[in-house]
Amino acid sequence: MALDTLNQDEVTYFDLNNELNIPKNGMIQIDKDREALEAFLKENVIPNTLKFDSLKAKFDYLLENEFIDKDMLNQYDFAFIEQLYAFLKSEQFKFKSFMAAYKFYAQYALKTNDQRFYVENYIDRVAMNSLFYANGDETLVMNLANEMIHQRYQPATPSFLNAGKARRGELVSCFVLQTTDDMNSIGRVINSALQLSKMGGGVGINLSNLREAGATIKGIANAASGVVPVMKLLEDSFSYSNQMGQRQGAGVVYLSVFHPDIMQFLSTKKENADEKIRVKTLSLGLTVPDKFYELIKKDAMMYLFSPYDVEREYGEPFNYIDITDEYDNLVANPRIKKTMIKARDLENEISKLQQESGYPYIINLDVVNRANPISGKVVSSNLCSEILQVQTPSIINNKQEYEEMGTDISCNLGSTNIVNMMETNDFASSVETMIRALSFVSDNSKLDVVPSVQKGNQALHAVGLGAMGLAAYFAKNKMYYGDEEALDFTNMYFMMLNYYSLLASNQIAKERKITFDGFEESEYANGKYFDKYLQNNFQPKTEKVQELFKQHHIPDQADWQYLKEQIQKFGLYNAYRLAIAPTGSISYVNDSTASLHPIINKIEERQEKKIGKIYYPAPYLKNDTLPYYESAYDLDMRKVIDVYSTAQQHIDQGMALTLFMRSTLPEGLYEWKNGRTNKMTTRDLNILRMYAYHKNIKSVYYIRTYTDDDGELGVNECESCSI
């Protein structure tokens, strides 16, 4: 019998797990989850796992059946592999919940070709990841194994799933492309989207450079079709290139709020949109400069500018014009075609759509570029809005060749598990091990199907180390989400993650005598990046947080001064190091709360295909931690923004910040609702977006709305970018 068609009548673990959702004597039956876990291992895993007489017999089988990468294995003596397994077994890893084990065996464990048996367990997957990323370095193998078996480090889903396999997909999580205003570029981007989607990653594409609908082409008025038909072509491309039927291709298109097609762009997601323009599976995002917020504040009219005219006047694509600085000049220039709308009307349209669909994502472009330490301009983002790197445009000739090759973006992701990281005895070593693993993925990604992406990857060696489990750490240590102690902890943790990731990247640059392209023009090289750390002493402010960090060395100003000198002398290997991606199924395997977000429910309900409902108790949920677990839907979202803002100051890229709203808001949650309707309105989202902007939030990823009939609108789980 295939594993995914097990007869549920023959097993007990689903029923035991479901008892989690049935209180007994007013208490949550937490013990039922442990019973479900034990039953799952006994009734499903043990009888359905292939048995081998020895480790050597197992590896012989894996090689003979082309399950594992022979070249990877040939880098090591088998005696060392036996040593690795002896260490991993000695650490006595155990899953902490039924959901963790179920998710691992359902989604990550290697299975026989007929799907009838498991071929590996959690230790095997950790071993394969460690052997693969270390690339023959036995010390690094053991360091990686140590980080992963203690679940301090978790590679993103594509990396964790595919590492070490002979028949594997790509390890990279996401990509970012842009198109320029010509048919050759549009054709090339569609081809690139097909290729990258086939590889498995989510793709972000910026369409802001395309001329608007009705624009002139070669003297013919009203000839241009605008961005919406291109969106339809891209949506069909992602539907077609669906990772061999395993998963729907995934993409997001971004547009500037100052593009003349902005209203049509937003209308493609409306439920009542005409089928000719409606996009169902494509995600939408907006790039928003400071000028938009300024015009909203003044309740002013805003001008939308023809990208073709702007490029003709300025000699570079619309994306690269600083709208905030040039706005008045653009308005005054009679050679630039423009249209007018009211800024607050557009603001309300954005909020209406976010209420209805969760879209669009918001990239606060000037906030991003003010904080960007790398020479160049960030113009777009990825499918989950956390990847924010510089790009340069390409010029494509009539043969679909690069006349001038620009740089596009790929990024591979991984995450620290905050609860477990705080228990490490060597924070610096842990982070260095993670940065080395991520750099290996960057160095060994085969991206020649899209040369501009390959060029960007080879130039920048960019990676994205993030974090999960912040809410779990707060609850475990009896801190309320968003309070003074929680913000103090967040500040310290991400300052340390920043410091030690810089230290690790500097060490790699020293060893290899290689820096990322453009290091000399960066704020790392001129030292400006370090000013905030040298002018401010980042140390814990509260007694509790001082106690929590007592076993760790918190970098002080002298440490930052030394690091600055080392980086100015030897450089950095990675142009970008940190990004907070959303964490999906892998956070369950880690027995962690997702990303930096608060929980949704103390007992989370998941609908699993072919199975039904599975319940997951929040990590460390006990009577004494219950009060510290408050649902995101009952929290003031300004607390979530505050937490993200505190972390953001230390993170060189972005963070996938989701806002959680009820369609009927809890009484007294927001003071501006006093005396008004308690229904969520566009005004509420307008205020929260403005608050996020003023707190220097770089991006707002998604709006999730919990409706009065206990359903979620706008639930979007990005599998490719999910850690």
From TrEMBL:
GO molecular function list: ATP binding; ribonucleoside-diphosphate reductase activity, thioredoxin disulfide as acceptor
Domain Ribonucleotide reductase large subunit: residue ranges: 560-582
Catalytic activity: a 2'-deoxyribonucleoside 5'-diphosphate + [thioredoxin]-disulfide + H2O = a ribonucleoside 5'-diphosphate + [thioredoxin]-dithiol
One Gene Ontology term from the biological process aspect of the record: deoxyribonucleotide biosynthetic process
Cellular component GO terms, alphabetical: ribonucleoside-diphosphate reductase complex
Enzyme Commission code: 1.17.4.1
Protein family membership: Belongs to the ribonucleoside diphosphate reductase large chain family.
Name of this chain's protein: Ribonucleoside-diphosphate reductase
Gene source species: Weissella koreensis
